[in-house]
Amino acid sequence: MAGPILYRKRLIPEECVLLKDDMLLYRDEHIIVTSWNTLKPRKDLHHGLSCYYLLEGIKVSRFYREDNSLLYWYCDIVDYDYNAGTDTYIITDLLVDVIVYPDGFVKVVDIDELITAQESGLLTDDMLKKSLLNLNHLLQIIYAGGFENLQAPLSKYVSQ
After folding, report:
1. What percent of the chain has pLDDT over 90?
2. Rounded to two decimals, what is the model's pTM?
3. How many other CB atoms are there within 10 angstroms of residue 30's CB atom?
4. Which residues of 54-86 are buried (b: 16+ CB within 10 A; e: fewer)?
5. β-strands 15-18, 5-10: how paired?
6. Are 91 and 80 in contact (CB under 8 A)?
């Protein structure tokens, strides 16, 4: 399936990486679903599936160990820029993340990076506001028992 060109832009550390090896599984005007292997090998994380919720500013990823067992769900708060002429998305990581473990435990991480990035000029006030509002939206979905709905687009690609 021919697909868009995806870049992952990080503020800390500052980088913009072409996700040239990510495989497009599905795309419509609301979501993009990909499968991928880790860019930098780790002992615990081997590969995964991701669903970019473009309108909500959330990326929900299913992280797997090498034996294909679920490590956890990793939810990035993101923003994106789209160039229709080149069919290119630059997905910017807005730093704060939510980890949902298989037992249901929820952990919010990297809030401190928001302040570091804002103080150093890497994050504008508008980006900070968007990050916190999208985080709040995600947590409301999780706490209301709706996280399964965010997992649904990935379910058809799970081989367990």
Report:
1. 85
2. 0.93
3. 12
4. bebbbbbbbbbeeeeeebbbbbbbbbbeeeeee
5. antiparallel
6. yes
